[in-house]
């Protein structure tokens, strides 16, 4: 996916928004005074600083005419890797390492699986063996290779 | 006598069988990381961080430090052979190293870089041995305002001295500070930014953020990048006598410059390499040779790079203030082991401090062997396809993150930070200041609070105390120095 907006604009807007959100959320915690700071004092101050730096990013970009676009964002890889890790997290305790590692290999090698099925399968087996040897037998983690537990 | 006793202690620790093994493993892994473009030291340290939890603190630090300085040594290989900088600091090595490779002097360029790194490494180690103990005892007289000022210096310096936009990097440091606020406030017991989640009450584990921001982000960016470019040819390792005589003076100057700059927290090797390159260019009789394969342009910056990489351990070990993202990760590893970083590390855990020092000397020798006679093997490694690297990184990270607290929730957080890290990367926002902010955030809040409590709310406490005042003045100087020329440069480019 191609994004035409300028990098600095996107970054500035994100920082300002995050800063405002942090500042507002901090108001729900006790603020205290400068001598005796409450839980909200520092987060509120950081929120304000973020607004300042985010705003400065926006102003500087406008002042020097920095309009370099964000360009191509590889949404496919972003989603596949994130989903792969989430599926690993969902299955690791319920179905064991064999299923979890399968998701991780699939999410990085999905484009090659039809062209080179043997290579992907081999990668999977080797990685599963190393992970099992190192983490289960070496470090003694309470994980199992195969498991059925819902 | 005290020094000899300490060195003896260090020798016994560093030369125990498993620590020699971890030192060698660290040096090999570090060289591997440094050579492979696209794999950066923070990524690999993030991958190993959860595993170090199961090692003894000394071994963990020896291993991670080995990766750190090993990578600094080996980055020159990729820079010279492929013209690809692994980190901003090795951009400088590309400038003259690659032209030398094109001229057929790649071997000589690599030898000079390895030899000057080796020399700088030992000088820097000597500096640590002689300066760290007095600095640590001086640090014992640091009070809350001085610590506050040092942390501010580290954060600002790390943000300012990157090659990215200054406001953006400062904002990234603030985001890190905010993430550091998540969890129960230690002073009042109020839960901050937990959004009612029980898993967030203890805050966000540092290694989880690091794995997300460095490792997952790297994988997302590299999934489609399965092959590598062509490698320059190598012939003959030995530099000529003429090349050596050109190299030794820049090496000395680079070592001095790098060692001095390395002591400042937050400056990073980027500053030292650029400063050394600029210095050599100014001193050269014929500056036009630079950029076309000048030996001085490799020897000086490489020495500065390695000296700074090692003297960075001084602020980290004496004050507990990391000089950059990789150092922050090492501090994170120590904290996970229950060793609070600070001046007391040297007195309470002498085996850790002196063991690390001696093992760094040992590692430096190992690296010379790994880098010079074996350089051919590493160059061949440059053709490892990324399609095997990506799933390997993912598997190690996921199982490792799970292993830290046997909690699948951490993986969701890491996945989120991976996606966030990729988007921020697309916006040219560097993750290093964020990580530094995350590590230093809780410390900064605590010291700031204490300073103002002691001064009864009077903020001038930071400028009436001499040490904290000079540290803050230094911070301001860095900001002014690095904020101005950049703007001018951009304007001239447009005009």
Topology:
The complex is a heterodimer of chains A (150) and B (495).
Chain A: E1 2-6, H1 7-26, H2 41-64, E2 69-72, H3 75-91, H4 97-109, H5 117-138
Antiparallel strand pairs in A: 1-2
Chain B: H1 2-14, H2 17-35, H3 41-52, H4 57-82, H5 91-102, H6 106-139, H7 144-160, H8 166-181, E1 183-184, E2 191-192, H9 206-222, H10 241-263, H11 268-283, H12 296-311, H13 313-319, H14 325-336, H15 344-348, H16 350-371, H17 375-381, H18 386-405, H19 409-426, H20 431-454, H21 461-464, H22 466-494
Antiparallel strand pairs in B: 1-2
Helix pairs in contact in B: 1-16, 2-4, 2-16, 3-4, 3-9, 3-14, 3-18, 4-5, 4-6, 4-12, 4-14, 4-16, 5-6, 5-12, 6-10, 6-12, 6-13, 6-16, 7-8, 7-20, 7-22, 8-20, 9-18, 9-19, 9-20, 10-11, 10-12, 11-12, 14-20, 18-19
Describe this structure in words.
The complex is a heterodimer of chains A (150) and B (495). Chain A is mainly alpha-helical and 150 residues long. Chain A has helices spanning 7-26, 41-64, 75-91, 97-109, 117-138; strands at residues 2-6, 69-72. Chain A contains 5 helices and 2 strands. Chain A has a two-stranded antiparallel ribbon with strand order 1-2. Helix content of chain B is 75%, strand content 1%. Chain B has helices at residues 2-14, 17-35, 41-52, 57-82, 91-102, 106-139, 144-160, 166-181, 206-222, 241-263, 268-283, 296-311, 313-319, 325-336, 344-348, 350-371, 375-381, 386-405, 409-426, 431-454, 461-464, 466-494; strands spanning 183-184, 191-192. Chain B has a two-stranded antiparallel sheet. In chain B, α2 (17-35) crosses α16, α5 (91-102) packs antiparallel against α6 and α6 (106-139) packs parallel to α12 (296-311). The longest helix of chain B has 34 residues, at 106-139. At the A-B interface, α1, α2, α3, α4 and α5 of A face α8, α9, α18, α19 and α20 of B.
């Amino acid at each position: 996916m191609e994004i035409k907006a300028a990098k600095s604009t996107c970054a500035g807007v994100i920082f300002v928004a995050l800063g405002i959100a942090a500042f507002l959320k901090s108001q729900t915690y006790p603020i205290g005074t400068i001598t005796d700071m409450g839980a909200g004092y520092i987060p509120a101050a950081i929120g304000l600083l973020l607004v300042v730096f985010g705003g400065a990013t926006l102003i500087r970009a406008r002042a020097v005419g920095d309009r370099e676009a964000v360009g191509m964002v590889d949404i496919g890889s972003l989603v596949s890797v994130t989903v792969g890790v989430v599926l690993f997290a969902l299955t690791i305790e319920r179905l064991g390492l064999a299923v979890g590692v399968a998701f991780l290999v699939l999410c990085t090698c999905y484009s090659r699986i039809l062209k080179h099925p043997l290579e992907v399968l081999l990668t999977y087996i080797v990685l599963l063996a190393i992970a099992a040897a190192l983490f289960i037998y070496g470090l003694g983690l309470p994980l199992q290779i195969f498991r059925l537990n819902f | 006598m005290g020094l000899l006793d300490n060195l003896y202690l260090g020798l016994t620790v560093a030369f125990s069988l498993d620590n020699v093994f971890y030192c060698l493993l660290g040096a090999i892994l570090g060289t591997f990381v440094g050579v492979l473009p696209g794999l950066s030291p923070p990524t690999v340290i993030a991958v190993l961080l959860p595993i170090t939890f199961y090692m003894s603190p000394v071994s963990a630090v020896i291993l991670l430090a080995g990766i750190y300085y090993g990578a600094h040594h080996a980055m020159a290989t990729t820079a010279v052979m492929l013209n690809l900088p692994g980190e901003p600091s090795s951009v400088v090595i590309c400038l003259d190293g690659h032209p030398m490779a094109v001229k057929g002097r790649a071997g000589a360029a690599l030898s000079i870089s390895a030899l000057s790194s080796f020399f700088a490494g030992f000088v820097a180690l000597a500096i640590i041995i002689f300066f760290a103990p007095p600095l640590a005892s001086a640090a014992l007289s640091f009070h809350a305002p001085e610590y506050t000022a040092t942390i501010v210096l580290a954060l600002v310096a790390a943000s300012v001295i990157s090659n990215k936009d200054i406001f953006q990097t400062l904002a990234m440091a603030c985001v890190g500070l905010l993430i550091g606020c998540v969890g129960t406030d230690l002073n009042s017991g109020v839960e901050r930014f937990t959004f009612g989640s029980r898993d967030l009450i203890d805050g966000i584990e540092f290694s989880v953020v690091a794995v997300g921001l460095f490792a997952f982000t790297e994988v997302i960016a590299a999934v489609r990048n399965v092959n590598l470019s062509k490698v320059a040819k190598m012939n003959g390792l030995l530099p000529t006598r003429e090349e050596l005589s050109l190299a030794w003076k820049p090496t000395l100057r680079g070592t001095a410059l790098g060692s001095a700059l390395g002591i400042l927290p937050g400056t990073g090797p980027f500053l030292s390499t650029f400063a050394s390159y600029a210095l050599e260019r100014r001193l050269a009789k014929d500056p036009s040779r630079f950029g076309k394969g000048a030996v001085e342009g490799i020897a000086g910056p490489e020495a500065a790079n390695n000296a700074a990489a090692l003297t960075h351990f001084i602020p980290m070990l004496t004050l507990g203030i990391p000089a950059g993202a990789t150092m922050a990760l090492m501090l994170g590893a120590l904290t996970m082991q229950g060793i609070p970083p600070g001046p007391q590390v040297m007195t309470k855990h002498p085996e850790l401090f002196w063991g690390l020092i001696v093992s760094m000397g040992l590692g430096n020798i190992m690296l010379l062997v790994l880098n010079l006679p074996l350089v051919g093997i590493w160059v061949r490694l440059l053709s490892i396809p990324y399609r095997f690297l990506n799933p390997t990184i993912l598997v190690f990270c996921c199982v490792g993150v799970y292993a830290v607290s046997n909690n699948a929730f951490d993986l969701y957080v890491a996945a989120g930070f991976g996606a966030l890290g990729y988007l921020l990367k697309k916006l040219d926002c560097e993750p290093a200041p964020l990580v530094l902010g995350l590590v230093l955030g809780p410390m900064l809040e605590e010291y700031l609070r204490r300073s103002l409590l002691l001064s009864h709310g009077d903020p001038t406490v930071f400028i009436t105390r001499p040490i904290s005042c000079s540290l803050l003045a230094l911070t301001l100087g860095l900001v002014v120095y690095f904020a101005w020329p950049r703007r001018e440069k951009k304007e001239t480019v447009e005009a």
